[in-house]
UniProtKB/TrEMBL annotation:
It holds the Pfam family AnmK. It comes from the Bacteria. The keyword ATP-binding applies. It comes from Ancylobacter koreensis. Catalyzes the specific phosphorylation of 1,6-anhydro-N-acetylmuramic acid (anhMurNAc) with the simultaneous cleavage of the 1,6-anhydro ring, generating MurNAc-6-P. Is required for the utilization of anhMurNAc either imported from the medium or derived from its own cell wall murein, and thus plays a role in cell wall recycling. It is an enzyme of class 2 (transferase). This is Anhydro-N-acetylmuramic acid kinase. One of its GO terms (molecular function) is kinase activity. Belongs to the anhydro-N-acetylmuramic acid kinase family.
């Protein structure tokens, strides 16, 4: 593979919003061009099925097992990804010559402490769908991108730092730079010149807020942080939540979507709070988690770039600025796509996987050596 190629990334994140589709042109080292992106939103039935799958997966010990609802969830998820690709190529037929597709799947369990991470999604089935939608010979499809890292003793997350580093080379901002992805879980990439990036999950983000709002109001999220903005942060309860041992651990470290659910239930006293106060404390927790990781970084960052769904929450951005005391910009403000960034990253990682380049590093996931990864399904067998 010589020079930049067209690559598509498909991302279904811990917020369970839908399938993000994004195209870039890349050689796996830098980004030559950005293509269009779109999202196929999950409906209520999709979200309910995936939430059931998350519950069912808590008892998994075999990453290939699909008991009960997990098999149905995997079929539905793969269908939705195929539909997202079909919608994308209908809207942008000029990109049917795509060379690579990165398919993240849906994480339903992440337990690197026992070397187990499970992403549902049928790679071969999606590859067949992709070949039917694209120009011959069709794209190579890369999936299961976390497994090799976890099997080697790494955290398996976050995987996006290699892409953040490629993007950051085009910026002229005061450093060190902190890139913060606010999905269901929050994660950071710390970038300081040519030093190796440092990365980790920092704590809960949208997942706890979304689950709280769904349980208390029936709404899937706190849109624009409106409820949190009207609430009061109980600093005593927040301090109890920050006493979780995860925050004292140095990077690399990672989380499962539901790791903090029981802790918050036991120590947050949210049941006694109004909707507004509960949303406020969970939003403040997300910001405070980022603040807690600063002490573990080589130097204090000068600039933070926020991406992901949480970057559209002005209340969360306000809390971040107040608690961190550093400049906070959004991905869109620096010319990146805040909504498509993770999908773009998996397009980038797919090309790196095809070239045998590492996806993760000792400073980003704790893996012993720079680690390639991903299962590669080649272009259509007839090619």
């Amino acid at each position: 593979m010589q020079g930049p190629v067209k690559a598509i990334g498909l991302m279904s994140g811990t917020s369970l919003d839908g399938v993000d589709v994004a195209l870039i042109e890349t050689d796996g080292e830098s980004v030559a061009a950005f293509g269009p992106d779109m999202t196929l939103a999950y409906d209520a039935a999709d979200r309910a099925l995936l939430i059931q799958a998350l519950e069912e997966a808590r008892g998994l010990t075999d990453r290939d097992a699909r008991p009960g609802i997990l098999a149905e969830a995997e079929r539905r998820l793969t269908e939705r990804h195929a539909q997202a690709l079909a919608a994308y190529f209908e809207a942008y037929p000029e990109h049917r010559d795509v060379a690579a597709i990165g398919f993240h799947g849906q994480t339903v369990l992440h337990r690197p402490d026992i070397r187990l991470t499970v992403q549902i999604g049928d790679g071969p089935a999606l590859a067949r769908a992709a070949h039917a939608l694209t120009d011959a010979p069709g794209p190579a499809l890369v999936y299961d991108l976390r497994a090799a890292d976890v099997a080697a003793g790494g955290q398996g997350a976050p995987l996006v730092p290699a892409y953040h580093r490629a993007l950051a080379r085009g910026l002229d901002l005061p450093g060190p730079l902190l890139v913060l992805n606010l999905g269901g879980v929050a994660n950071i990439t710390y970038l300081d010149g040519e030093a190796e990036p440092v990365a980790c999950d920092t704590g809960p983000a949208n997942a706890l807020i979304d689950d709280f709002m769904k349980a208390r109001t029936g709404m899937p999220l706190d849109r624009d942080g409106t409820a949190a903005a009207a609430g009061r942060v109980d600093e005593g309860a927040l301090a109890r939540l920050l006493d979780h041992p995860f925050f004292a651990r140095r990077p690399p470290k990672s989380l499962d979507r539901n790791d903090f659910r029981e802790w918050v239930a036991a120590h947050g006293e949210l049941d006694a709070m109004s909707v507004e106060d509960g949303a406020a404390i969970l939003t403040a927790l997300t910001a405070a988690c980022v603040g807690a990781v600063l002490a573990h970084l080589p130097r204090r960052p000068a600039t933070l770039i926020a991406a992901g769904g949480g970057a559209r929450n002005p209340t969360l951005l306000r809390f971040l600025r107040a608690r961190l005391g550093i400049a906070v910009l959004t991905a869109d403000e620096v010319g990146w796509s805040g909504d498509a960034l993770e999908a773009q990253a998996f397009a980038f990682l797919a090309v790196r996987a095809l070239k045998g380049l590492p996806l993760s590093f000792p400073t980003t996931t704790g893996v012993p050596l720079p680690m390639p990864g991903g299962v590669v399904l080649p272009p259509h067998p007839a090619a």
